Amino acid sequence: MNKKTSVSLSRRERESINLIARARELRRQSSDAEQLLWRHLRARRLMGFKLRRQMVIEPCIVDFVCLEADGGQHSGQVNYDDMRMASSKAWDIGSCVSETTR
Question: Any alpha helices (H) in 29-91, and if so which ranges?
Fold first, then answer.
């Protein structure tokens, strides 16, 4: 006999699931310009960088993103990282940038 258990999700979990579903929908319904740009960016075609599109970086869905994981080898780059964060804020994407280097 199988019993179904009811799993209650928190509001934040439901919002995350909704964002992921919306990102998938946006990928399927890309504009012509996004499709053309993605054709040139995908599969490491831009200087070998791995890019993703319509990715959830809560609370946002960003159109295109290149992820970088910093390790200890970047500990001397505090000034560069600060400049990069200031630049992202100047482009009005600072609220969607997650800083994990510190």
Answer: 32-41, 78-90
Structure tokens at 70: 């910093």
pLDDT, tens digit, 9 for 90 and up, residues 36-81: 999 998 898 888 888 889 988 888 888 888 876 655 565 666 666 6
DSSP state of 92: T
Residue type for position 53: R
| Rg of the chain taking only CA atoms, in angstroms | 18
φ, ψ for residue 43 (rounded to 5)? 55, 40
> Would the CA dihedral through 22, 27, 20, 63 be positive or negative?
negative
Strand, helix or coil at 57?
Answer: strand
Q: Copy the structure tokens of residue 91.
A: 């482009």
pTM: predicted TM-score of the whole model, two decimal places: 0.55
Measured at the CA of 68, the angle between CA 82 and CA 77, to 5 degrees, comes to: 35
Domain range annotation of the chain: 9-67, 70-102
